[in-house]
Amino acid sequence: MFEDYNIKKVKFAYKLILPGLLWIALMLGIPLAYAFYQSFFEVSALLPEDTFIGLENYITAFKDTVVQQSFLRTIVFVFFTLTLSFATGMISALLLNRKITGKKLFRACLLIPFMVSGVAVGVSWQWIFTSDLGVLNNFLRFLGISPVSWLAQPNMAMFSVIVANTWRFYPFAFIILLAGMQQIEDMYYESAKIDGANRWQRFVHITLPMLKPQINITLIYLSFACFNQFDTIYSLTGGGPGEATEVLALNMYRTAFSRFDWGYGSALAILLFLMNAVLSLVYNKFLESEERA
User: Fold this and answer.
1) Which segments constitute the ABC transmembrane type-1 domain (predicted)?
2) Distance of alpha carbon 67 from alpha carbon 133, whole angstroms
3) Got the DSSP string for 207-241?
4) Is 261 domain-assigned?
């Protein structure tokens, strides 16, 4: 009897989410299918008609040094942005997981960057990093330090992009980790205190192990968000100077909409989708192994 009841509940739940799933499938599936179809053609605004070229766009993508360099930049960008976002979120969560005055106000303020659009974040940080009138360089001049060309030098431009995106993404890590910390019973820390454990030992042996589910969720989200980052980088540097901050998503956009090579751009979009699919499968396997452990 109970099994029949549970089956009915599951069926009813699926019926409720079916319209939403169909809508998402249409909104994502149709553009993806069209991009897949277009990737087998040479499609350009400069050509009178589309020409079927088979796998040529994909072969070109694997040989293209610009794509390879964009991939390496993406790896560097993801590694540093993810690491800094997670570390900043963890430190913020630890600081606000205490009885302090104005905790709710601080928590609300720390969440603001995550609620701002990526384009707005890029424009705001461009105002901060601009060489002549930027807030940061004006502050450096006030201190008697020579201004820095934050967005004109390749290494500094990548640094600026990482800082801006860290500011944008760390609130997600902060709120998820803080929610996890608030679920940990005080008795664990009190027992550890009695046993003579210091703060670092309590963090390593109590906080981190009990935050494992929240840490996994945070790292998975940040990985995908950083890997597919486009809007903040585009509005901050446009991929420049030159191609210094051109990550995969930006390279795909430039190929399709700046060079008007829509067939090749579609092939790059499909490859980016496949990379995300592989990353998703790896994370699913990891989570399954964690559940079995």
Assistant:
1) 71-283
2) 34
3) IHHHTHHHHHHHHHHHHHHHHT--HHHHHHTTT-S
4) yes
The boundaries of the domain holding residue 105 are 66-292
Backbone angles phi, psi at 197, to 5 degrees: -75, 135
Q: How many domains in the chain?
A: 1
38, 266 Cβ separation under 8 angstroms: yes
User: What gap in Å lies between CA 123 and CA 234, rounded to an integer?
Assistant: 10
Helix%, strand%, coil% for the chain, nearest 5: 75, 0, 20
Element (H, E) at 172: helix 154-181
Please report whether residue 143 resides in a domain. yes
Question: Is residue 104 a part of any domain in this protein?
Answer: yes
Which CATH number do you get for residue 154? 1.10.3720.10
**Chain length of the chain:** 293
Token pair in block for residue 89:
């979120």
* pLDDT tens track for 12-61: 888 888 888 889 888 888 888 999 999 999 988 777 788 889 899 999 99
Characterise 148 by phi-psi region: left (phi > 0), alpha (psi -120 to 50), beta (else): beta
Bond before 241 cis per omega within 30 degrees: yes
Can you tell me the distance from the alpha carbon of 292 to that of 111, in angstroms, rounded to the nearest whole number?
34
Contact (CB, 8 A) for 134 and 150: yes
Tens digit of each residue's pLDDT (9 = 90 or more) over 69-128: 999 999 999 999 999 999 999 999 999 988 887 788 888 888 899 999 999 999 999 999
Residue 90 CA to residue 81 CA, distance in Å, equals 14
Segment (H or E) for 65: helix 65-96
The residue type found at 192 is A
Mean pLDDT estimate for the chain: 89
- What residue type is 139 in one-letter code? F
